[in-house]
Each structure stands twice: as structure tokens, then as C-alpha cells.
Amino acid sequence: MTTHEKYKAMKKALGLTNADIAEIxxxxxxxxxxxxxxxxxxxxxxxxxxxxxxxxxxDE
Length: 60
Prior knowledge:
Order of helices and strands: HHHH
Domain RNA polymerase sigma factor 70 region 4 type: 10-37
Number of domains: 1
GO molecular function, one term: DNA binding
Low-confidence stretches: none
InterPro entries: Lambda_DNA-bd_dom_sf, RNA_pol_sigma70_r4_t2
Strand content: under 5%
Protein name: Sigma-70-like protein
Mean pLDDT: 96
Pfam families: Sigma70_r4_2
């Protein structure tokens, strides 16, 4: 599974929207959309979110 697929799965599982993520990290929803385009590498903040989500799932 690619990091983009993991990101989408995480958002769906947690019920998060771009607006929710924008509020959490302090940027605009459009910035979240722009930074997480499938044509770009995911930013560090998104990779960090995936890491924590996967870690928490593994510890359940």
C-alpha cells in the first residue's frame, strides 16, 4: 500500500476531512488538499500522522 493509500485509509477510518486536518495542524483546507495531491510526495506531517495511526492500530 502506498503512503497516499494509507493516508486516504487513515482519513476514512478516523472520519477526518481536509478541514479537520487543517484545523489540527494550523493551515488552510486548500493547503492540505494541495500538499496531499497524489502527484506529490506526502509532507512530513502527513507521514507522521500515518505512523501514529498505524502504531495505535497495531497496539490494539
